[in-house]
Amino acid sequence: MSRVRVCKTADIPENGMKGYELAGRRVLVAQSGDCYYAYQGICPHQEVCLDEGFYDGSVLTCHQHLWQWDITTGAAVGLAEAPLERYDVEVDDGELYVVQASALQVAEIFAGASEATLARLNDIARREEYEGGSALYNIGDPADDLYILESGRVEFLIGRDERTTAAGFMLRKGEVFGWNAMLENQPSRIARASCLEKSVVLRLSGKETLQILDADPVSGFIVMRKLSNLIARYLTLSGAK
Ligand code: FES
């Protein structure tokens, strides 16, 4: 968790919004009634600042393609295909702070693991930032690291050369990919992963992750059960029988 001061509460107009740059990340702060809300400042559709859009005190609209969100929850409304990442807000003596959970804390497959195990996983996680267009890995590369998306958008392609096929993309904080690093006898990548826009990921060595889970069998069982659900979901989506 990190708590970062953003502004004075008085800086946010009544039923208005403002965008801020915090440690290299765009954050949107909005006021509605007596409450303040903070969200990712970049549209989950494309690289567009949400504070350049429209806000009526309850619904936020991106001016580019009119995706909309409920300001109290960040839930998608109407055309929008993805929710906004929400941050907790704390107000202290007229100063406004946002509290951001790490991608590891919101990663679905690690939900339910013990605090001690999460802390050990956090110790081995490397936070890396990539520009749009950067390849994270290619088909055939060694499958040694597991990835957790912190921000941005990652696309997957299968096949080779001009015969590649899009295999989907990820845009939600906490989504895990490159998970074959946690499987035995799966030494190489079966897809190409690249960043569609500037993206931040956490990388964890698959081998070290398994060692940490081995030392805490209860957490290990929970994580591996969630991993098998993730693989089953992937196989269903990709049409495998
Ligand atoms: S860029 Fe925001 S809706 Fe398309």
Brief overview:
This protein is of the alpha+beta class. The chain is built from four helices and 18 strands.
Describe, in plain words, how this protein is organized in 3D.
The chain has helices at residues 103-106, 115-124, 206-214, 217-237; strands spanning 2-8, 17-22, 25-32, 35-40, 54-55, 59-61, 68-70, 76-77, 86-92, 95-100, 126-130, 135-137, 145-151, 154-158, 165-170, 176-177, 192-195, 199-205. Strand 2 (17-22) and strand 3 (25-32) form a beta hairpin. The chain starts with a strand and ends with a helix. Helix content is 18%, strand content 37%. The strands form four sheets. The chain has a six-stranded antiparallel β-sheet, with no helix packed on it. Strands 5-6-7-8 form a four-stranded antiparallel β-sheet, with no helix packed on it. It folds into two domains: 2-100, Rieske [2Fe-2S] iron-sulphur domain (Rieske Iron-sulfur Protein), CATH 2.102.10; 103-237, Jelly Rolls, CATH 2.60.120. The chain is α+β, with helices and mostly antiparallel strands and 241 residues long. It has four helices and 18 strands. The chain binds FE2/S2 (inorganic) cluster.
Query: Ligands in the structure?
Result: FE2/S2 (inorganic) cluster
Task: Please summarize the sheet with the most strands.
Answer: 6 strands, antiparallel
Trace the largest sheet across and list its strands: 1-10-9-4-3-2
Helix content: 10-25%
From N to C, what is the helix and strand string?
A: EEEEEEEEEEHHEEEEEEEEHH
Rg to the nearest angstrom? 19 Å
Helix/strand structural class:
alpha+beta
